[in-house]
Design brief:
249 residues, Rossmann fold, alpha/beta, 8 helices
Amino acid sequence: MTDAPPADPADLDAALVRFADAALAPSVDHASGPSVVDAPAGRHDAPPAVGTRPGEAGSGAPWLVVTSATAVRVVAGRVPRLPAGVRVACVGDATARAARQAGWPVDLVPDEESAAGLAAALPTDAAPVLFPRSEIAATTLVDALRARGIAVSEVVAYRTVGTGHDPIVLDPPPDAVLVTSGSVARQVAARMTPLDPSTHVACIGPSTADAARAAGLPVHVVAAARSAEALLDAVVETLHPNPRTGRSS
């Protein structure tokens, strides 16, 4: 799998301009002062906005929500600097690392590293919310936010495309196949099945595991956290267990 620009990059650029304009617009009634809102659930490592208590976002704070390192790289490549006051929510630690490397402050990483966990953790009055996504991203995040009454704009930031259609035969068969997204799962199912019975299918998280099963793949390993490190640790523990504890040493 590889990433490609959206079919019409103008849509992404327009969405980023609208988001920046909305973020720069006044969002606090200075006559009455800032209102107190629900603090977003999850982990936080950025300083609070002016007029809020630690752990709280200002009323109507704009949020940029990202669920992949690729989305971070695409947006950062088109917007050198986020407008002041923009809050950044990342689906997991790997995405948060990419955001910090881009120079973004990370305001929220949900305890449950999934689209559903991210949607549940965002503050109720978040507005506006922009979700730059893959062309084939599931609707989980957007549906959950809208169900909570949170207005969210989604825009395709990149496409995930296959690198071919021919079957892939590996000899000898691999000990494990690492599945890091639903699109990878579908490519594995289309080009590598039937897998050798000795090959373990390892998925980066529960949602990816669900997609793998839906594609007809067996799932042997699911990482404890949504990160490459956790996925590799889970594979090592499965392939080389400690004979006394059942876990790797």
